[in-house]
Design brief:
24% helix, fumarase, five-stranded mixed β-barrel, single chain, globular
């Protein structure tokens, strides 16, 4: 990774405003994981005005579910899940304080609008290197929805997690920029 920005969680709105689509990032600190069912449960609690099992204010979520760890390992392979599966719930979670999202693939117009409104950021993680990404995880603990198994919400301590900014606070989209730049058909 050439000249990445080193960022430590919690990510602030000011940090988000300093990021641009296409920036390479090495993220360290604490993040959470969550996928479809966990997002649906959180969104339902938000709609009902109930307390969440995890505080989302200033949080970064990785759309992922790890494989079981091998003996002596902290976590199994862990790679990004396709993000559009969380798009229905992402604006609710950003309204509740979520500031960073990590996954793969494009986001809906509604999510991109919410990213601008809430001064959040969407990072792309590289697919196909799940075993390598697991090496960036220094600690992993289930913090909510244990009944979901690998799709439970986990707290991960990470170091130099390689990411790229896909959607920034100004509405820039790395995928759309690439299509325009190279006259590719979307």
């Amino acid at each position: 990774m050439k000249n990445p920005k080193r960022i430590h969680t919690p990510i602030t709105r000011d940090i988000c405003e300093g990021l641009n689509a296409g920036d390479m990032v090495l993220l360290s600190g604490s993040i959470i994981t969550g996928r479809d069912t966990a997002h649906k449960r959180l969104s339902m609690l938000i709609a009902e005005g109930k307390d969440l099992p995890v505080k989302l204010d200033g949080e970064t979520i990785f759309y992922a579910a790890p494989t079981p760890p091998q003996p002596g390992r902290i976590i199994g392979s862990i790679g990004p899940t396709t993000s559009y599966r969380m798009d229905e719930y992402a604006p609710d979670l950003m309204r509740a304080g979520l500031i960073g999202m990590i996954g793969k693939g494009k986001r809906s117009a509604e999510v991109r609008t919410a990213i601008i409104k809430y001064k959040a950021v969407y990072f792309g993680a590289m697919g196909g290197i799940a075993a390598l990404m697991a090496g960036c995880i220094k600690k992993a603990d289930i913090i909510a929805y244990e009944d979901l198994g690998p799709e439970s919400i986990m707290r991960l301590e990470i170091k130099d997690f390689p990411l790229i900014v896909i959607n920034d606070t100004r509405g820039e989209d790395l995928y759309e920029n690439a299509v325009s730049r190279y006259n590719m058909v979307p």
